[in-house]
Amino acid sequence: MTPLAFLTEPDPPRGVAFSVAPGIRRLVAPNPGPYTYHGTNTYLIEGVGGTTVLDPGPDDAGHVATILASVGLAGAGKVARIFLTHTHADHVGALPALRAATGAPVFAHGEGVADGAAIGLWTALHTPGHAPDHLCFARADGVVFSGDHVMGFSSSVVIPPDGDMAAYMANLRRMLGRPGDTLFLPGHGPPIRHPLAFTEALLRHREEREAAIRATLAAGPMTAAAIVERLYVPLDPRLRGAAAASVTAHLIKLRGEGAARDTDGVWRRA
Asked: How many Å apart are CA 34 and CA 238, to the nearest integer?
């Protein structure tokens, strides 16, 4: 497979919101790990009427306090609205506390936000795959909050049944159809400053992984775990479950296309 050049960054500042684009600050939550990198990114977007908070982050009182202090609720600042890219706990655990403190309205898929909805300067893009309710938020100047759909530090985890590999790959192609996008601000990790080239590499990585799974099945019936052992070398033991989920998601996609079938967890070519 073609190596995918993931992005890295030093451990970012903690407990402080720092600028990543004009009018946009990034605040990294204290939940580092193999699936979250340095932690979940909470973004503070300045605008008319106050600050929009995108992805409040995990259920952590200290993180909520930092959001409020950064916005400046004690002074003139206020939280005008809350955007959610999706409802995984590392992105929304802090939502109840933030809503209680601010009373700000929430904009999320299923809460009055559909694909193409305009909220101020931002347009919501429904991009299921990593999660069925996943949204990206795009602005006309090329800035996109890409959530966990496109991240620089890693490919997205796609875990069935909520994760859908066919939808994920289709929505990578959708992002490639947006040539005016110039900056992705992801849910974890650093800004992606060449987003189209990186998204194209992510899609190619998935296509090559799928081709390798097809080739492995040609050797005979196999479980998803056995495919992981053959294809993911080397593999961080902490990521074994994610790798098995990803392989399963690819197999389900192939089954839907009539290219694979399974019996009691054993997969074979159709």
From this structure: 7
Query: Residue for token digits 């070398």?
Result: 233
Q: Which long-range contacts (CB under 8 A, 24 or more apart) does 205-208 make?
A: 205/1, 205/2, 205/4, 205/155, 206/155, 206/165, 206/168, 206/169, 206/172, 206/250, 207/169, 208/1, 208/2
**CA nearest to 28, candidates 153, 162, 171, 139:** 153
Report the CATH number of the 18-194 domain.
Answer: 3.60.15.10
* Distance between CA atoms of residues 245 and 161, nearest Å: 10
Give the 3-state secondary structure of residue 104: coil
Report the relative pairing of strands 106-107 and 118-119 from DSSP bridges: unpaired
* Mean pLDDT of each 10-residue bin along the chain, 270 residues long: 85 95 97 96 94 97 96 74 98 97 95 93 98 98 98 95 97 97 98 97 96 95 94 82 93 98 95
pTM higher than the cut 0.85: yes
